[in-house]
Amino acid sequence: MRKKYLNFLIIPEDSSRNIKFRLSFWKAWMILGLLVFWVLVLIILTLLHGKAVSDLIFSKSLRQENERLKKYNAKVVELEKELQEYRRFTQRVAELAGIEHPFPADLQKTETNLASFQKEANPLSEGETDLYSSTPEIASKLSERVQPEGEEDATIEPESLRHIPKGQPIEGWITRGFSLNEYIFGGQHTGVDFAAKEGTEVKVTADGMVSFVGWDDVYGNLVVVDHQNGYVTYYGHNFKILINSDDFVKRGEVIALSGNSGRSSAPHLHYEIRKDDIPIDPKDFLNPK
């Protein structure tokens, strides 16, 4: 069979010699196939590159969102801890006042496991709003219970309440609050700092036994009081300590003079409350209703 060819003629503009050549059909098809193949390869590589760039941008966006959610979750966990401490404190006061079930039924359930708390929710739910609204009633009944009829100026405090921290330990103003959030500026701070001039009287906030008196590399001259009910208070950075270890102290008793000892940049008192060896926010105990 006679082979078929494709003839090509190229005529230059300058009228020079014409270029003429021919290709057999199978060579022409082979060249065309190679061209189509390389075009497809280029298209595929372009698509893959675009997808890789898109995935990289999406991955970066996910990392940023993950960091934002971590910070948000830390704030939610911290707030939930504060609410739980408030519920436990109010429950204890309610029991002393003889009030049963001061919380709504939904708050009697097992507390949320904070380590796995991930939901984005309004920090003050309807149940917790009811909790705050019920506090005046609890306080009113407690007042009726501890104040004898006909003695308006008398204040009789049950012995068990005298072992719960109450009021400020020093005359001063708060310069740094409580926080367990490691993402905020300054990191975690397990107590509150009161600015006061050196030599200001430091008073114990509840009855208890002095469990530690001495030097601490962070808190300087430190006093620790065990209130024998799970509560322990810390008084740090003192100039001078006025009591001894194993002394029994009563609320309002002067135990030290404030100073600037330990890891401190200015005269102040570091005041800390722990419940069952867990730091809790002292703010609910500074000015109780």
From TrEMBL:
Q: Which InterPro entries match?
A: Cell_wall_metabolism_enzyme, Dup_hybrid_motif, M23ase_b-sheet_dom
GO molecular function (one): metalloendopeptidase activity
Q: Which residues form a coiled coil?
A: 62-89
- What residue intervals traverse the membrane? 25-48
**Protein origin, superkingdom:** Bacteria
Q: Where is the M23ase beta-sheet core domain?
A: 188-282
Keyword Cell membrane applies: no
Supply the alphabetized keyword list. Answer: Coiled coil, Membrane, Transmembrane, Transmembrane helix
Which SUPFAM superfamilies does its entry note? Duplicated hybrid motif
Q: What's the protein here called?
A: M23ase beta-sheet core domain-containing protein
Record organism: candidate division WOR-1 bacterium DG_54_3
Write the lineage as a comma-separated list.
Bacteria, Bacillati, Saganbacteria
